[in-house]
Write a structure and sequence with these properties.
The protein is mainly β and 518 residues long. InterPro entries: WG_beta_rep.
């Protein structure tokens, strides 16, 4: 009979014990509340907590106790309110309240607020939360959820809407977009379908394509159409028998072959004679040239810079200064097109807080709103000012620059990133630090990772260990832990560490040999 060795049993027990990990839970006053034994804990949202232990992957209760077995190996994706879980056989789905809605057997799952679309090979299913039912759609060439909550499905080169009013009705083509309407094509032409799946523009238009929002550009019976979607009946907002071109978010109308109008989604933005060229600079911003040599900048509400004959090129600006070009050199004009700063530069950037980066020769400098040079052109790049500070690049180093042209950090950094609070995360020699909004050092660049938590707490990693420190450098939680998690909802902190038990093994007494004769 096989007799187990006590030391062998003890070895396996201790080996398993050493693999376990514990989270110490503290309140915000650093009082120890409890200890939790998990391999890992993740906070997916303020209310969704996930824990992994030797028994599996769990959705945790508010006090971090296993509440629902998620039956998988890892969280594939969290798309509120849906938790997608990956297991050996595929992906499944749970609601954040703990209800399992799809088994872990699918190749792909798309989510919407109140339903899911699941695929396995070329078969598709829909789970509807309101009814709690899963419906088989069959074998499809493709299926996708639109942003209005309809599903566009394709089978045998025909399209249909499984969630529409008539799910059996087929179409030649269906297309979703950023608006609230679906583009539809039948044998009779193009039309529009609303979010309920009802046709609101009969499919009789020869050509139709999405413009932006709920607006569409079309052509039918020798006339051009600008159409706005509507839940009941789509509206033709503008029609013309003259040509309207539509390309790169730019619509232009030509009358008898001559450029006459700049169009917007539902009508005329600019109607004037003498235009020869319109260039889209960015969304709702157009550079317009005229036959008499004038050049202007047009925006959504009219002229941003009035047409003038002294400009060759112009761009959007800030603080009343617009970068413009004349005779191959750049300077700045006002909204009337009059020069504020003489064109003498190779490049001119936008003004920010009364400063602008310019380029003279191969290098960048900094000028103020009077055109005076604050920093001579010896920089590779100077980024826009914000809250009194700009960032300059020279010799592959980044420097903070103030309004006087003073360099705050003469040693320079490899990276400088502004935080939402106006501070700066900096990196030097692959270590990160923190600067105040005035550029003063809060934390020297000696950390592997820094992240602000609450007002003055900084979560940090140093030498592969996590700690929690204050902005003044005072250590709140020492750098002795594998991970630190801030649970703001419950005003508590979880710190993760390995068990390090002290093992005491009692040795069996050595038996003495009996003496001869006894």
């Amino acid at each position: 009979m096989f007799r187990k060795s006590p030391l062998l049993v003890l070895f396996f027990t201790i080996s398993s014990f050493l693999q376990a990990q514990t989270y110490e839970v503290y309140d915000y006053d650093m009082n120890l509340k409890t200890r939790l034994v998990y391999k890992s804990i993740s906070l997916l949202s303020e209310s969704v907590k996930i824990g992994s232990n030797e028994e599996g992957l769990f959705l945790l209760s508010n006090d971090f106790k296993p509440a629902v077995n998620l039956e998988g190996d890892e969280i594939y994706q969290f798309l509120e309110p849906w938790i997608l879980v990956k297991g050996p056989n595929g992906i499944g789905a749970f609601h954040e309240y703990g209800q399992k809605v799809l088994d872990l057997e699918y190749d792909e799952i798309e989510t919407y607020f109140n339903f899911l679309l699941a695929r396995k090979d070329n078969e598709y299913w829909i789970y509807k939360r309101g009814k709690g039912t899963t419906t088989y759609l069959g074998e499809l060439e493709s299926a996708e959820i639109t942003n209005v909550g309809q599903i566009i499905a394709k089978r045998n080169n025909e399209y249909f809407l499984p969630l529409g009013e008539n799910p059996d009705e087929t179409f030649e083509y269906l297309e979703g977009n950023e608006g609230e309407y679906i583009l539809v094509k039948t044998q009779t032409g193009f039309g529009l379908i609303n979010m309920e799946g009802t046709i609101v523009l009969e499919p009789v238009i020869s050509e139709l394509k999405h413009n932006r929002g709920n607006f569409y550009y079309g052509f039918d019976q020798d006339q051009y159409l600008l159409i706005e979607g509507d839940p009941i009946n789509a509206n033709i907002r503008y029609n013309s028998f003259h040509k309207i071109s539509f390309e790169n978010d730019l619509m232009l109308e030509y009358i008898y072959g001559k450029l006459r109008r700049v169009m917007e989604e539902d009508g005329i933005l600019l109607d004037t004679v003498g235009m020869t060229e319109v260039n889209r600079m960015e969304r709702d911003l157009y550079q317009i040239k005229f036959r008499d040599g004038k050049l202007g900048l047009l925006g959504k509400k009219g002229w941003i810079v009035k047409p003038t004959d002294s400009l060759e090129w112009i761009n959007n600006g800030n603080e009343g200064y617009f970068a413009a070009k004349k005779n191959g050199a750049f300077g700045y004009v006002n909204k009337e097109g009059s020069w504020l700063i003489t064109p003498t530069f190779q490049e001119a950037g936008p003004f920010s807080e009364h400063f602008a980066s310019i380029k003279s020769g191969l290098y960048s400098g900094l000028i103020n709103s009077n055109g005076q040079m604050v920093l001579s052109p010896e920089w590779d790049e100077i980024k826009a000012f914000q809250n009194g500070w700009g960032v300059g690049k020279k010799d592959n180093k980044l420097f903070l620059i103030n309004a006087s042209g003073e360099i705050k950090n003469p040693e320079g950094y490899n990276k400088v990133c502004r935080t939402e609070s106006g501070q700066f995360l900096v990196e030097s020699n692959e270590k990160v630090g923190l600067l105040s909004s005035n550029g003063d050092i809060i934390l020297n660049p000696e950390y592997d990772f820094l992240k602000h938590e609450r007002s003055n707490w900084v979560l940090a990693i140093k030498d592969s260990k996590s700690g929690l420190i204050q902005e003044d450098g005072e250590v709140i939680i020492p750098f002795d832990y594998e991970e630190i998690i801030i649970d703001n909802q419950n005003r508590q902190i979880l710190v993760k560490s390995n068990y390090e038990p002290v093992l005491m093994v009692e040795q069996e007494p050595v038996s003495k040999k009996k003496k001869r004769g006894h």
